[in-house]
Amino acid sequence: MTSDFRALVETLAQHRVEYVLIGGVALVLHGSARTTQDLDICYSREVRNLEALADALAGIHPYLRGAPPGLPFHLDVGALRSGLNFTLQTDAGDLDLLGEVTGVGTYRDLIRDATPMELYGHTVMVMGLDSLERAKRAAGRLKD
After folding, report:
1. Strand 63-64's sheet: what is its strand order?
2. C-alpha distances in angstroms, 101 versus 23, 32, 44, 139, 142?
3. What is the mean pLDDT of the chain?
4. Which DSSP category does 2 fall into?
5. Mean pLDDT across the stretch 24-46?
6. Confidence label for 28 from pLDDT (cuts 50, 70 and 90)
7. Do residues 23 and 36 touch, judged by C-beta distance below 8 A?
8. Taking the model in full, what pTM does it have?
9. Contact assessment for residue 34 and residue 26, using Cβ atoms and an 8 Å cutoff
10. Contact yes or no for 69/35 (Cβ under 8 A)
11. Which residues pair with 95 in a beta bridge?
12. Distance in angstroms (rounded) separating the CA atoms of residues 65 and 58
């Protein structure tokens, strides 16, 4: 399933979730010809934001991507607080939540270098080029 990036961005915006858009979509917004199937974000781990994130995603039914069907899973503030990174499938497509980005750090670290961009009528914070380069080098994957 290809992700509905518009629906994901609008859902996060409606709930005022604090995040930095990272990964493949960030690369594309900075001009890369790369394609991606999911939306990756690094989210603020402040309690208020965890509440907003849990509320936002409840309506699009998040489930652990690759988990067996029927596995009990409920993405609430407790789950977000207990975990750090989540690879999810939702009604709007795949969404990866990262509490920390290898080579760069947490939301607080990413927001310093983030670039505001308009996306589907919303201003989103997009991972800056310097941070993208550090993250891609730290990931050490050939495709990056």
Report:
1. 63-64, 85-90, 93-98, 39-43, 19-22, 122-126, 115-119
2. 10, 20, 12, 9, 18
3. 92
4. -
5. 88
6. confident
7. yes
8. 0.92
9. no
10. no
11. 39, 88
12. 16
